[in-house]
What we know:
With 50 residues, the chain is mainly α. The chain has two helices and no strands. The protein has helices at residues 2-15, 20-45.
Amino acid sequence: MIVLRSNTSINYFHFKPVNSSTRRLLSFLTVESKHFHEMSSILNTYPKNG
């Protein structure tokens, strides 16, 4: 029952029409996370001594 309810909510949020503000926020978060991963990888390539 709980699994079915969670699957229903996931399907509801997946197929629910997203308004422009929510879509803008989601795209912003996606871009920011990608930039964060790029920055962390760039920082990891630098020598530890600086």
